[in-house]
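Recall that a protein's primary structure is simply its ordered list of amino acids. Everything else, from secondary elements to tertiary packing, is in principle encoded there. The following example makes that idea concrete.
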Amino acid sequence: MRSCVQEFKHETDEALVMMAQQGNTAATEELLLRYKNAVRARARKFFLVGGETDDLVQEGMIGLYSAIGAFDPAAGKRFKNFAYLCVTRRIYDVLRAAGRQILPEEEIDPDTVESGISPEEFLIDDESRAEIRHKMMTVLSDFEFRVITMYLDGMSYGEISAAMGKEIKSIDNALSRAKKKLMGCLK
């Protein structure tokens, strides 16, 4: 399958979207592959109580797939920005449906991305983030807090291990403890 997709490696995202919208499944696959890591990184910026990062990645991929179908090159926007917005909105929708029990470490920049979120919602989100961050700091040990913060920033277990000077198993254990503690205090 990858050999079919190799022919598209020099195509722009916008050209691939046009091909995908005309039914070219290989172009769609290429776009999904190109953006898979970006979707994973975006999903890792959030913590879904009772869920897994993979759940948010899957939702983000659905948002990416929707972006491929809905992108309008005549609007003068880059597909990359549109895809980022669609992925983020899809993840936000899932998090809101889960009762807004989220731990976002990064927000959409309203100056660079068009968003349907009102200034009031941004303010509420900021206050919620600050409250949740405070809970994290009081419930988690310093080590657990630093580990989960690095994890939410998109670092792998190996990168966190190297940065902290600890074994990967210690990182895994700290993340497990942190998730359990956070699920307990956010219910």
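Residues 118-187 form a domain with the Arc Repressor Mutant, subunit A fold (CATH 1.10.10.10). The chain has nine helices and no strands.
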